[in-house]
Amino acid sequence: MEEDIPLLDARTSSSISKSLLKFARTISQGKKTEMRCFVKCCLFILLLDAQMQLIATYEDSHQYPVEFPDFGPAYEDPWPKHEKQLGEACLNSDECRRDLCCVLHNGCRECRRRAMYCKRCSEYQLKGGYYKDYCPCLEGQGECHTFPKKNYGLCYFGKER
């Protein structure tokens, strides 16, 4: 009875083809439950193979180099910092050189020298980045110690208040 049923091509020698031959022989012997199992296994293998082919096909489908547009020269800050000289008008202390600060005096803001040791100073910056009437102490020249009920103090080295 096995000779009457053409099974598979003789060239296939993989383990899958051997298992298919085995199932074909059991089918020819009349076992229907194994036939159902065989059909389910074949269907599962077929679906698994189709899924693997889809994954392999679409794995790199959305991968491509991103090229950014040219926005022209590098960004430059429109407000150059720390370049204004002594006596120049300013909006805040960031515009004045590092040894200067922006002071509001008689309604005008201008760059002035930071206070030296034993000179009048202002400890508190006003909203907007400028000081009223006096600059703070220059770095290394002490700390500004303010007087009660005054808007200024003196730069000197001393103990904590």
Concise description?
The chain has 161 residues and is of the alpha+beta class.
Structural description of this entry:
The chain is an alpha+beta fold and about 160 residues long. Among the domains are: about 45 residues; about 60 residues, Ribbon (Lipase, subunit A). Helix content is about 25%, strand content about 15%. It is built from two helices and six strands, in the order ααββββββ.
| Overall 3D form | rod-shaped
Q: Give me the CATH fold name of the domain at 93-156.
A: Lipase, subunit A
How would you sum up the major sheet?
Answer: 3 strands, mixed
Helicity, in percent? 25-40%
Mean pLDDT: 77
> What is the C-alpha radius of gyration, as a whole number of Å?
44 Å
CATH class division of the domain at 93-156: Mainly Beta
Protein name: Ixodegrin B
Organism: Rhipicephalus appendiculatus
Keywords for this entry:
2 helices, disordered N terminus, 25% helix, Lipase, subunit A, three-stranded mixed sheet, rod-shaped, 6 strands, three-stranded antiparallel sheet, alpha+beta
Topology:
Layout: H1 15-28, H2 32-58, E1 100-105, E2 108-113, E3 120-121, E4 131-132, E5 143-146, E6 153-156
Parallel strand pairs: 1-4
Antiparallel strand pairs: 1-2, 3-6, 5-6
Helix pairs in contact: 1-2
Protein name: Ixodegrin B
Organism: Rhipicephalus appendiculatus
